[in-house]
Amino acid sequence: KLFFTDYGNAAKVERCDMDGMNRTWIVDSKIEQPTALALDLVNKYVYWVDIYLDSVEVVDYQGRKRHTIIKGRQIRHLCGLAVFESYLYTVNSDNVSILRINRYNGTDVQSLARLDHAKEIRVYQKRTQTAVRSHACEVDPYGMPGGCSHICLLSSNYKARTCRCRTGFILGSDGRSCK
């Protein structure tokens, strides 16, 4: 799945398949400017920062179990969001500091470091990476991902895929080759 935020005409948090199909709104009320987003892949939770409401919230992948982690002035101007173990990590763009917030109760907000011009944060740790099983976009014996001549996108599950073409090309009638 692909998860993303939008605060155009109607603010929302959405998900879709990697090929763009099955687009679903998972949060579309009591939300103004969702910016940063982070996933708990193990427990299947989506965390986001709303910079207008000065809040960090969470919801499960289906849009249920929504609640506010933390809200208020102490978390104004947040950008970037990452989740690891019991904490959320984010960047306060006002004073350019990295904050650590307990994701279960919103307490224990600590400034860990200051970095000039930081706008994003990521946690790289082996335990945050899910195991990869064989999937529909694996390279075939001819070196083509999923048998697609240009781009292979996973579809509704890891066994299904959709082929797409680079700009200027159209997909052939076989659904795999680009012309």
TrEMBL record:
What are the BP-aspect GO terms? canonical Wnt signaling pathway
- Pfam families from the xrefs? FXa_inhibition, Ldl_recept_b
Q: What is the protein name given in its UniProt record? A: Low-density lipoprotein receptor-related protein 1B
Q: Which Gene3D superfamilies match?
A: TolB, C-terminal domain
Organism of this sequence? Fulmarus glacialis (Northern fulmar)
Show the stretches that span the lipid bilayer. none
Q: Which InterPro entries match?
A: 6-blade_b-propeller_TolB-like (IPR011042), Cueball_EGF_LRP_Nidogen (IPR050778), LDLR_classB_rpt (IPR000033)
Has keyword Transferase? no
Q: Where are the LDL-receptor class B repeats?
A: 1-43, 44-87
Query: Which SUPFAM superfamilies does this one have?
Result: YWTD domain
Q: Which molecular function terms from Gene Ontology are attached?
A: Wnt receptor activity; Wnt-protein binding
What cellular component terms from Gene Ontology apply here? Answer: plasma membrane
Q: What superkingdom does the record give?
A: Eukaryota
Write the record's keywords in alphabetical order, separated by commas. Answer: Lipoprotein, Receptor
